[in-house]
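tool_log.txt
---
The assistant was asked to compare two proteins side by side. It first ran the structure predictor on the initial sequence, then on the second. Raw inputs and outputs are pasted verbatim so the downstream comparison step can read them without reformatting.
(1)
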Amino acid sequence: MFLVVFVLFSINFVWSQPLPFDYKEEIIDQLPVPEGEININRLQWLPASHDFWVAENGNVYVYSADDLSTKKLVLSADQIKSAGLVTRTENIIWNAARNRILIYTNSSRVWRGNTRGDYWYFDLSNGKGRQIGKGLLSSSLMFAKFSPDNINVAYVSKHNIYVENLSSGKMIQLTNDGTDRIINGTFDWVYEEELSCRDGFRWSPDGRTIAFWRVDATLIRNHLMINNTDSLYPFTIPVEYPKAGNKPSSVKIGVIDMTSHKTVWLNIPGDPQNNYLPRMDWAGPNEIAVVQLNRKQNEATFYLCDGMTGKANKIFTDKDEAWVDVVKPFVWDVPSWTWVENGKSFLWNSEKDGWLHVYKISRDGKKEQILTKGNFDADYASYNAANRNVYFYGSPHDATQKYLYRINLDNTDTVRVTPAKFDGTNTYRISPDSKYATHTNANIHRNFNERLIRLDDNKKVYPAGEDEFTEPRLGFKLEKIKIKTVDGVEMDGIMAKPNDFDPSKKYPVYFYVYGEPASTTADDLPHFDNFISQLIPEGYIGITLDNRGTPAFKGREWRKSIYRKIGVLNSRDQAMAAKEILKWNFIDTSRVALHGWSGGGAMTLNLLFRYPEIYKTGIAVSAVTDQRFYDNIYTERYMGLPDENEEDYKQASPITFAKNLQGHLLYMHGTGDDNVHYKNAEVLFNELIKQGKVFNMMIYPNRSHGIFEGPGTRDQLNKTFINFLRQNCPPGAR
């Protein structure tokens, strides 16, 4: 369960079982770009190269990272307008020869991303263009891409796959059974949300066939949201949504022949309603690689399938007593494997030896070699086929940070790529050929610094001059802390203090919480929760901590000790750490507040209900109040199947302990939340009322999980939040 990233919002939330808002992207995107300079944060790499394109004043330019002194105009704003395209260029899809493009525009939201829109085809040799998919519903096309032979373009519309000839404009519908429940070439809500699946078809290398996913959700029940405001009579909005304990959609993979239009279905073993197919891609002219996850998601099987006969050959299996991670949140549609040595082997991340390591596995699955050896985590990033370098993220000495490292297939000695002066958190957007990358660095004492580098020698190629490191102007100070609990658990944390902090006085403390497997919050970055950031100068101490179960670089046992213990182990870690913090002389134990959103909202409720002697004021937003109410993929991955461990589900759910509420609670939720349903709120309210508990609530009609829609919404939410905190946990040193 991950929460969407909205760059235009200024408030930093960690959403339920979701990832946190990408603060770095928000800040960088707001920076002005001087005339004549390149916004390297916005650059988009071209396929199989280290060239990139940028849009400037409506014109499309291409640069080579080898030489930024010149740029090539490939399509002018006038040519775009002459074709009849007047809306904004949102993305560009290139053919392999780079002489034809598709401009994506006029997009609309599907689930959490704008993946449906219009496409315009342009021939760069003459600048002529036209809209493709004419005759289909406006803004309905998805994932358009060129065939490798440059003859056709394929796309999805209304859950069917189409192919269109670029010369004649003739359009052929390849699938005909698409409905709201039969989904071809893309995915339903839960596959996108929990398995990072969006683009559901792939051209074969020769362009003669298309492999595609077909999702059959006909047996999945609807969750009904109700709209009370937009018509005289209320109406319901159905959302196809498989909850914990319910079987998932039946998914299979087919291969359509472009000549006969016949489909061959891959014969992958197992019940489609008790397995998942999160990744698929071509592995040769007629061979397709597929990853299958079992229902409990603790066994991932890698198959090579014959695209002509459908026969599936089992190659490799990765198992774990808890769960196996085969996808990365918000890394859409990228294969879980990387072919190396001309397809003779592939790279695979696994925690099988107790740490996340990169393995090289032979194509037949018979040989396996661990490449990154040692007691550290190695999160695979990219591979350079030219020099055989394998790049990965890690941080062996400080889990709040992140650095880039490399090994070589011929020499597995670990080399740190990130220079020593870039202390803190480092992220790289690596070119498809792994020769260049944009490198962003920041830490709690340093603003974001972005540069374009050559990876093999770390040479900076843009911008010119020395790197400038500036101190962030936050209005408060940040520092790292480590807390060891009575259970012997050492937790990393970030603490925010007022600039005029006086250690001889006592301050209220505000805990910003999340604590689930999707994200960390104690990161070495120059930001803190934006709600309390407004008030820290008035005299608050802000603290965020990463408990066991968060995806920190601390080994498998740290990350997976939370299995079947969500709400239990993570809340105890947080509470026991808070007890140690309350021993500090400058903390006022009568003024202890906490806040979290979604997964953090559930944590807020669990802490407020389970440990009322510690926490006095809580603000929970869009929380999962009963684990049975959330979707099956996320919940069963971390909690197992409800019919096998009903008591674990009960102990994990905040509602079980609502009777213990003693402090001040403000609960906020949107009734249009298709992620964490508003049902969670009303069931919680019902229990609190039953137990005679007094609490505050703020309900936002028809707002989604992010609670941002409609005029005045964010301003009102912020005021409500701040006023409640000031009233019940007053600021100021005493």
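(2)
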Amino acid sequence: MCCIPVFCWITATVLEDVLKTREGGKFTLTLTDMYSHFLAVQAKVKKVKYDGGAETDQHWSPESRKMIESLGKLAFDQLQKGNLIFYESDLTECGIDIRAASVYSGVFTQIFKEERGLCQDKVFCFIHLSVQEFLAALHVHLTFINSGLNLLQEEQQTTFQIPETRDSAVKHFYQSAVDKALQSPNGHLDLFLRFLLGLSLQTNQTLLQGLLTQKGSSSQTNQETVQYIKNKLSENLSAEKSINLFHCLNELDDRSLVEEIQQSLSSGSLSTDKLSPAQWSALVFNLLSSEKDLDVFDLKKYSASEEALLRLLPVVQASNKALLNGCNLSERSCEALSSVLRSQSSNVRELNLNNNNLQDSGVKFLSLGVEIPHCKLESLRSDQILSHEYTLSPGFFCLLVCLFFLRLRGCNLSERSCEALSPVLISNCYSLKELDLSDNNLQDTGVKLLSLAAKSPHCKLRTLRVSHGNLTERGCEALSSVLNCQSSSLRVLDLSNNNLQDSGIKLLSAGLKSPHCKLEVLVLSDCDLSERSCEDLSTLFNSNSSSLTELDMSSNNFQDTGVKHLCSALHSPHCTLKSLSCNLSERSCEDLSSVFSSRSSSLREVDLSNNNLQDSGVKLLSVGVKSSTEMKTLRLSGCKLSEKSCEALSSVLTSQPSSLRELDLSDNDLGDSGVKLLSSGVESTLCKLEILTLSGCLITDQGCDSLASALESNPSYLRELDVSYNHPGDSGMKLLLAGLKDPGWRLDTLRYGENV
């Protein structure tokens, strides 16, 4: 309710009066407190502003009491009928003078207002449904304490006179109200019940002194009502009804169940295996009151089970991101989640269902939820949404109506799934921007179907990943036509781990050279390519129409001649490539080094990992990196380097100006002596390195000593250090951990040990 302007205004009105009239401004902010105080404030405003009285005068005149009683009767009668708009006949029926309706509207504008309907007839309504519900509860409460008449019962009994009979009648009155609200199929009496129970407290009766002329229930009766509600919570109620009962307990100033759960959560002793239905409801109520848990809800924090999900569905519905991966969910969960996504009050934007055996029938249930127009879901992750024996039917793809990102890696899909997906890409009703179908047997026929759809002017796809898709050169021909299409919005294409061969790259290059091509990232890792592919791609970089900024050609057999072709093209002033991953030997390092030192080169990130460069190759590379003003990232993981390479790279770090910001030397046998040489470069004030990765480099406590000493001398730049999978010893780690806590060091991430 805090997002409703009227409620905010009511709150502000009450708080303003409280801060003026109460010492210290102390106020228990239950909902009934708020509305009782608001009504009292309005009575005071009428008395002072319109009747010429003083603020110290009794606020409730006979006229004001009669007005509130009449408005209360109107509120209750119309609430019973489900009406929010009333006509003159409704007012007359409740004893409200039609001629005085405008006076009521003017005096109690904040409570009641007059509007014109479509037919120019006078119609009336309360400024908010909550005001109507409060006045309805007040009317039922006043009628009962004044006459003993229970308006919630169809069969009325005589007025109580004997104290024992009266106490029993009061207890029955509140318990019957609880039952009546629980029987409501749409919850229309939920807020009414909260107000009615809240009015039983002495604090609220004091606020309305003058309007309430007789005392209500005793504290003993209130305790019996509390226990009655707790007993109801032990029954198999819906989550919504259970949550409202907790609000009712709050109005009755009982928070024992919630405090019990809060204590268990704080101490980490919460065991969902032993929770009663009432405790589950208390957990839901507690989580719904926590903004932190509503941002990202992780089911595994409580229990990775279907029962826990079904119990905590209201929390899922209120969350922005729901992490339900690896929680042993089945199609039963999908049916429940579908109802969550169909709800207009659902906030879910990202749903992670990875590693659950939902099966095709479960996904169909989900589709019923996300195809609703008001569904807010933007991302669904379902990498292993099915077990290996199932495939996705065409009906599954209606899931995409609200998605921006769809990841279906390893879901046992075939070209038939591509056929079902194609209409989604063509339709202008969908907003799919990223599609990952890697690790599925799509084959060329599947990619051809996707390509036809991707050429549609309505297709918004920017990223397509089909790694391990069993594609050949024929798939490249289809994708080339997409790149050549003027309406294509494709920016990222991952074709890694497919047997494309040189013939496929030749076909793909035709599309890459098109002036319509907007592709920025191309991944061709492990595609059985040779130097011929390098020659075809080289002509692309010499063209001023290329928009490619990132190219991954690792795990291919280019040989030195292929790298030479590639490096020659990288010298071109038309080349826009900023990131490169490829295979080369130590003999090719000199050609690549010349690219680094070229003023026309735009390369900023180079990944040469898992190449047999050896120390001689790194020495040649260092010459180019040292003279480059653009190179920011160099990855040399697993390149069979020793301490000699560290000496060459140390000179790079101390060069002026040094542009290198990230260096990865992991999985090389550098040893402590190599780290010592590298540290001499790190400690230089000329070194601007921010990320250093030395995982698996045979480092002991001596190497850590060298690093700690270097960082102490030059603490202003390095913010990430990875020394995992080494043997630093206690003394070495003690020095680095001390630096991590030192505010003078910029270091904020230190990875060590073997579980990182």
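---
observation on (2): Residues 29-251 form one domain. The two ends are 44 Å apart (CA to CA).
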